[in-house]
Design goal:
By secondary structure, the protein is an alpha/beta fold. It is about 45% helix and about 15% strand.
């Protein structure tokens, strides 16, 4: 059964009821993670061909506290690799753009721009790079990563506000995409947490929605418990 977390919060006492079925340690962990979650930064994956690499990026986003990941899948359906992602997909919100006969890159990036994000495109082309320590983190930033073989599309390059790259000093042309994501996010999230941006955390209403969602996902029979609560309180779904 599908439930909307924001709607469930309208039922007074339901969250506290569900929290009674998880351990105090789990409740404390949820609060700790919520305090470090951010939507100031997000990641966009464009047509990543290798599921293990894309799955590793999901795990990287979770580790660095990013709540949202955007996946453009024009040419290949995106599937997380359970062995690699190790449950991180449960805690990160994955937005998919895979409409048939649509320019999904444009749809994704235009939506992000409408939501106030600047596009930071990773590239190996001869573009004018902005050093990572000069990316203005007071702006919301969407870091875009392209497929392993060809990099980001022309459309992504055209939509970019900044071009970024990670310096390399060996024979290999590029890092593995998950390594590249980790190196970039380490620098940008460190700057957020060191105080370069005052309000980088989630709003309280965002935390409350995730508190409900993560509590549900921590329970094996959450839907059954919700149904029982609603019936006991004579509440219509």
């Amino acid at each position: 059964m599908q439930y909307n977390d924001a709607t469930l919060l309208n039922h007074e006492g339901l969250l506290e009821y569900l929290q009674g079925f998880i351990t105090e340690r789990r409740r404390d962990l949820i609060e700790q993670v919520l305090s470090q979650r951010t939507r100031q930064l997000t990641v966009v994956l464009e047509n990543i061909y290798h599921p293990p690499n894309a799955s590793a990026v999901i795990r990287t986003c979770d580790c660095f506290g990013l709540q949202d990941l955007h996946v453009i899948a024009d040419q290949k359906r995106f599937r997380a690799n359970a062995d690699v992602v190790q449950g991180a997909a449960k805690w990160v919100d994955i937005q998919r753009y895979a409409a048939i006969e649509e320019d999904n890159t444009t749809l994704c990036l235009q939506k992000l721009k409408a939501d106030g994000y600047k596009i930071a495109a990773t590239t190996l082309r001869q573009e004018k790079y902005t050093p990572l320590d000069q990316i203005p983190c007071q702006e919301k930033i969407a870091v875009c990563l392209g497929c392993e073989e060809t990099g980001l599309s022309d459309t992504a390059h055209q939509e970019a506000d900044y071009f970024v790259h990670v310096p390399m000093y060996g024979f290999t042309e590029s890092f593995n995409i998950s390594v590249c994501a980790a190196l970039i996010l380490q620098q940008l999230t460190a700057r957020l947490r060191q105080g370069s941006v005052e309000q980088w955390g989630l709003q309280e209403h965002e935390k409350q929605i995730l508190r409900m969602r993560w509590t549900r996902k921590s329970l094996k029979h959450a839907d059954h418990l919700i149904q029982r609560y609603l019936l006991d309180h004579d509440i219509q779904r």
